[in-house]
Design a protein that fits this description.
heterodimer, A: about 375 residues, alpha+beta, four-stranded antiparallel β-sheet, B: Butyryl-CoA Dehydrogenase, subunit A, domain 2, 3 domains, about 45% helix
């Protein structure tokens, strides 16, 4: 057992933190939240130059072949800065789907573009009933000669408004859930950004007679759910890393405030009521971060995480909400304002709970995995 | 980063496991209900603990983590964690944590050579049973407020006062006592540590019965008790500092999480095997969710314990100190939730202790009553949270 990060990993963390501190202070985060595109193209280009996007792709697809734990470190640091970018949708979700299920041609043509920061992608999985399950994917893909025709509405697709390509989950009769690579600007596609708590690029996508050539199926008809399931644990870990980073920042920010804010002639951090909230917050962070590292290590080693992955997301969901809610409370009135930064994290905690499964969903899945 | 145990460590785990699997077959029926009560309440229960202690002593397992010079094997703390996990899973007795975990490190740091030679080997061999002489009626969470006096007269100290909440005081043959040797001192200054034989004239042990009538803790009265000066451990009046220095034993709290996992597994078996209102209990969505939540707590708690063990091993004591408080408060409150959910899942059977009708040997009912004590003893949840805020986050100390 060795529970320390390597020196290289410490350096990676430091360089990500320094870059984000310089490039994206909280004022910039708020500006990006209010912009239509929701991210900064120049920052995106620089991130690609720093190698963040190619990190875990195998070398034959223009990557560095790094372990997933290195990506986890990047995501943790992004979480600390509440950094808005299409990294999760493009590099993590779509990158993993292509890696796990794409043909050689698809991987060779698309992954190097993602690695170079030249391609943005979005995964369109969910539909109007907001189900996380396979049974929730019902948009039809009708075969017609050498292509399929997509009709229907996809919901809660991240960064679809800025994506160049979509990976769309739809149902092919007699085959089942199938993934399609679709040009985001193809005729018949209407993408609308929805106003969300997270002020992020969460989109509705309407498909009206959208034609997709058969060679743009990912992994074959009926293989969609299996591929999504392969993406799932890694993507959960990386989203949780972002959330855990937010937990850390909230704990630190709040402890600083509690040391400085004077009431009744004393720092409020000297009051037991505040101390006990803060002890719970630190406990929430320490249990979340250590469990994140453990489950990430398990995935890296190829171990079965059928229980752990649900335990992780449910725990981090709940702790991030608790920590940020107490963070607002301890900050008092200023914690509720747009000007102050606490609200960035409070809102993200809720927004990220919905990504890859809310707490209810993961409790139920965990009960299944426990053989109940 | 790597959470893997080595092959040698896995082999060690297997060796511990085989031992306890075999030994626990001989547990008396009093043992099945579990908890500290099983160990201290009945003669049969304590005898089972006592013989197990001697067997563990013979194997050298009580003192594995001690330095070689004191008869130990210098085993790394991770091996102690493995032992604690297996021991907890089997709900086994045989470890006198007051002697092995608390007083022995105190002796190693502060004892004279004569004391180390005289007192450590019997602890390692499992021949003695210690109790802890700290709490007093007016010194609980505020331990530094203690007032038991030890006044030097010639070669002896004369001790007068009262200790309380003394766990296993009625079973122990020794106590490590914290008493005030400087009568003009206040708070943490002027305190000293003594090794005390419980059969000295003037010591009287009176039971404090737990709410379920179980005999675990005691009041211990000292009336003109003569303790030889050679039993003073460490320097006179510097007992507080020595006490603070001896926190180096494995204190990740891993045991509670492992034991909790076993309880959850038993509970799941019960829920799958029993129907209520025509439906398997395990199919009830509320029950499923409650059990899932407990499992999550136990998982993340156990992983935090690994981190504490790791930090302690490499000397990251500040993190370890704060996180050990986190583990204690989290573990004891989670244990209470385990008791709550267990008694809920069992329905009306959740109230039964010693009965042919009692599911899971009545553990749920015993646990439900005892779990509230765990939030109080060994530093209440409130004191632990203060420590986490001060040490872990640097918030100003409450005056």
């Amino acid at each position: 057992m060795n529970l320390d990060f390597t020196k290289e990993q410490d350096m990676l963390r430091k360089s990500v933190a320094e870059f984000l501190a310089k490039e994206c202070p909280f004022e910039t985060v708020k500006e990006l939240e209010e912009s239509e595109e929701g991210y900064n193209k120049k920052q995106w280009k620089k991130m690609a130059e720093l190698g963040w996007m190619e990190l875990y792709f195998p070398e034959e697809y223009g990557g560095m072949g790094d372990p997933i734990m290195n990506v986890m470190i990047i995501m943790e640091e992004m979480g600390k800065k509440a950094f808005p970018s299409p990294y999760f949708s493009t590099v993590v979700q779509c990158g993993l789907v292509l890696l796990e299920g794409g043909s050689e041609d698809q991987k060779k043509s698309l992954l190097p573009k993602i690695a170079g920061g030249k391609l943005l992608m979005s995964l369109a999985q969910y539909e109007e009933d907001a189900s996380y399950e396979q049974a929730g994917i019902n948009m039809p893909a009708e075969p017609a000669g050498d292509h399929y025709v997509l009709n229907g509405t996809k919901m809660f697709a991240l960064d679809a408004n800025v994506a160049d390509k979509l990976i769309v989950a739809a149902r092919v009769k007699d085959s089942g859930v199938t993934l399609f690579l679709v040009d985001a600007k193809a005729p018949g596609i209407t993408t609308t950004k929805m106003p969300t708590i997270g002020m992020d690029n969460t989109c509705e996508i309407i498909f009206k007679n959208v034609k997709v050539p058969k060679e743009d199926v990912v992994g074959g008809p009926g293989k969609g759910w299996e591929i999504l399931q392969k993406m799932f644990p890694k993507a959960v870990i990386l989203k949780c890393a972002e959330m855990v980073g937010g937990c850390r920042e909230t704990v630190d920010m709040t402890a600083d405030y509690a040391k400085k804010r004077i009431q009744y002639g004393k720092p409020i951090g000297s009051f037991q009521a505040i101390q006990h909230y803060m002890a719970n917050m630190l406990l929430g962070y320490d249990t979340s971060s250590n469990y994140l590292y453990k489950v990430c290590w398990m995935v890296q080693e190829g171990m079965d995480v059928s229980k752990e992955i649900h335990a992780l997301k449910a725990h981090v969901n709940e702790q991030y909400k608790y920590i940020t809610e107490r963070g607002v409370q301890i900050h008092g009135g200023v914690g509720t304002t747009r000007e102050f930064n606490m609200g960035l994290f409070y809102r993200r905690a809720k927004a990220y709970e919905y990504v890859l499964g809310d707490t209810q969903y993961h409790y139920e899945k965990l009960a299944d995995a426990l053989n109940m | 980063m790597d959470f893997e145990f080595t092959k040698e460590q896995e082999a060690l785990r297997e060796e511990f496991d085989e031992f306890f699997r075999k030994e626990m077959k001989h547990a008396p029926k009093e043992w099945a209900e579990g908890g500290l009560e099983a160990m201290y309440h009945t003669d049969e229960g304590f005898a089972f603990h006592d013989q197990m202690k001697k067997k563990l002593g013979k194997k050298g397992w009580l003192s594995r983590a001690w330095p070689k010079e004191y008869g130990g094997q210098d085993a790394p703390l991770i091996e102690q964690l493995i032992f604690n996990e297996v021991h907890a899973f089997h709900r086994a007795p045989g470890v006198d944590n007051f002697g092995v975990g608390m007083f022995a490190p105190t002796l190693m740091v502060g004892g004279t050579e004569e004391q180390k030679k005289r007192l450590l080997p019997p602890i390692a061999r499992g021949e003695v049973q210690y109790c802890q002489g700290w709490s007093e009626p007016d010194a609980g969470s505020d331990l530094a407020n203690l007032s038991t006096q030890a006044v030097r007269e010639g070669d002896y100290y004369i001790v007068n006062g009262q200790k309380t909440w003394t766990t296993g005081g009625h079973r122990a043959d020794h106590m490590f006592l914290l008493a005030r040797t400087d009568p003009n001192s206040t708070r943490s200054r002027g305190l000293s540590i003594f090794n005390v034989k419980m059969d000295l004239p003037g010591i009287e042990v009176r039971p404090i019965l737990y709410m379920d009538k179980g005999h675990i803790t005691n009041d211990v009265y000292f009336k003109d008790v003569k303790i030889h000066a050679s039993e003073l451990v460490g320097k006179e009046n510097e007992g507080w500092e020595l006490t603070r220095q001896t926190m180096n034993f494995e204190r990740s709290g891993v045991a509670g999480f492992v034991e909790g996992k076993r309880t959850i597994a038993e509970l799941i078996d019960y829920a799958k095997a029993h129907k209520r209102n025509g439906k398997k209990i395990s199919e009830d969505p509320v029950t499923r969710q409650k059990i899932a939540k407990l499992f999550i707590g136990l998982e993340v708690g156990q992983t935090l314990a690994y981190r504490i063990n790791w930090e302690q091993q490499k000397g990251g004591l500040i993190f370890a100190a704060s996180a050990a408080s986190e583990s204690k408060v989290f573990g004891s409150e989670l244990s209470q939730q385990v008791a709550n959910v267990s008694t809920e899942v069992l329905g009306m059977y959740g109230q039964l202790e010693n009965s042919k009708w009692a599911p899971m040997d009545g553990k749920a009912a015993t646990h439900y009553q005892f779990c509230v004590a765990a939030n109080i003893f060994a530093g209440s949840s409130e004191v632990q949270r203060n420590l986490i805020a001060w040490v872990g986050l640097g918030l100003p100390r409450t005056k």
